[in-house]
Design goal:
With 431 residues, the protein is an alpha/beta fold. 23% of the residues lie in helices and 23% in strands. The two termini are 17 Å apart.
Length: 431
């Protein structure tokens, strides 16, 4: 769910650019006439389309994407939609217009994979064979893991920026609050855009501050871990933001139940080995659900042994640890990086290079360093760009600008620059 950090695109020979820039884009779903493809991609999100686009630009002419959805969303902007800073419609595009020309769109859902037979089963019951497989179906939002949450989403003051239909509801509830308690939750475990729960709290708090009512609102931020952020250089900035808004941070807590009738959020406090329940009465709540790999991935031979069941790959090459012709990137992979769009942007060329190497009978040599970025919108006109890698140290990519502090120009990058980059470069295999 995170934006793509603008970096220098690898330089290409002019002849290459001349040959590739005239490629037309956009496709329609194709009927099932083939049951085998050289390269099969599961998922038509940011990872799947970016990989397909790069493969086409490199001359691969037998590529297929399995994707059931007819709409594609730029999810990083949903945080701003939920703050009244961007319209939801701006985040939506037709899937058919984004799939690269020449890539076959199998408009169905993947529901099983047999890596021994090299086939993927789809919802229609048919099986599609492959020589190489890229698994990028995204992440599963486990709303039902929190009793009482599903039935109250989108009403009674409870919403979430993790769904296209709900993000506008977040703004609807937050903008009219003039007093009471606002709760913002974050689940334990890996999740897409791990900074989003905090960003929602900061944007709402700034709005209430502008309206002169912040002192009448008890803002509670529920964090399952012991710190706001793992990288110290960015954490100290976020701690000042929390202090500025007077946010009550409940470290070591997690939402475990919602009681819609009494508007209670039930938390579990796991600090110091405790496991005690704490109930908070809320007026509005931004809830983020636990997340995991899609259930069919969990039940497949590709899954790791962890409960979340992500596709088990080498964290540098993205090659599956048991099947060398299977790769995974994006939110469904087991790589221990922050699950952001910026990470996908760095993973994509690594996966493409290593996949083609395997098809050519070579060992994969391209390596991903764990780069990710969290653009923390700390106010309605400022952003802190947290870039880091597997070492959990700052990894800045924008020259001459100190991105380790809140900046107004970074806000414009978040609001306008990164969406443009996403639609016009990344999804076309150019960024």
């Amino acid at each position: 769910m995170e934006p793509i950090v603008s970096e220098t695109t690898p330089r290409r020979p002019l002849a290459y650019v001349a040959l590739t820039m005239d490629m037309s884009w956009g496709s329609t779903a194709m009927t099932m006439s083939h049951t085998h493809h050289k390269i099969l991609i599961i998922g038509g999100g940011s990872a799947g389309i970016s990989v397909a686009a790069r493969l086409r630009r490199l001359g691969e002419d037998d590529v297929a994407i399995i994707e059931p959805a007819d709409k594609h969303y730029y999810q990083p902007l949903w945080t701003l939609v939920g703050a009244g800073c961007a319209p939801a419609a701006e985040t939506e595009r037709d899937e058919a217009k984004l799939i690269p020309k020449g890539v076959r769109w199998i408009r169905d859902r993947a529901c099983g994979v047999d890596p021994e037979k090299q086939v993927v089963e789809i919802g229609s019951g048919e099986s599609i064979g492959y020589e190489a497989l890229v698994v990028s179906p995204g992440i599963q939002l486990d709303w039902d893991k929190i009793p009482g949450l599903t039935e109250t989403l989108g009403k009674n003051g409870v919403s979430s920026n993790y769904e296209y239909e709900l993000a506008p509801k977040t703004w609807e509830f937050m903008k009219d609050l003039r007093g009471g308690t606002a709760v913002f939750t974050m689940p334990a475990g890996p999740l897409k855009c791990p900074g989003a729960p905090q960003k929602s709290a900061y944007l709402a708090s700034h709005w209430w501050q502008q309206q002169g009512v912040l002192n009448d609102i008890n803002v509670i931020l529920v964090i399952p871990g012991p710190k706001l952020f793992g990288v110290p250089e960015f954490r100290v900035v976020l701690e000042k933001v929390v202090e500025r808004y007077g946010i009550d941070v409940r470290f070591g807590h997690e939402l475990t139940e919602v009681k819609p009738d009494t508007k209670e959020a039930v938390l579990v406090n796991r600090q110091d080995g405790k496991d005690e329940k704490v109930s908070i009465t809320y007026d509005v709540m931004h809830a983020v659900p636990p997340q995991s790999a899609p259930d069919w991935i969990k039940q497949s031979p590709l899954a790791s042994s962890e409960p979340a069941g992500y596709v088990e790959v080498d964290k540098h090459t993205h090659q599956h640890v048991r099947w060398p012709n299977v790769f995974s990137l994006g939110d469904a992979g087991s790589t221990p990086n922050s699950k952001t769009g910026a990470a996908i942007r760095r993973q994509t060329p690594v996966v493409v290079e290593n996949l083609l190497a395997v098809l050519a009978g070579k060992e994969p040599s391209a390596s991903y360093d764990g780069y990710a970025a969290c653009p923390f919108t700390t106010a309605r006109n400022k952003m802190l760009l947290a870039e880091f890698d597997y070492t959990m140290t700052p990894h800045p990519t924008i020259p001459l600008i100190n991105t380790q502090k809140e900046r107004r120009d970074m806000w414009y990058l978040k609001r306008y620059g990164l969406p443009w980059f996403y639609w016009n470069l990344m999804l076309r295999g150019l960024g």
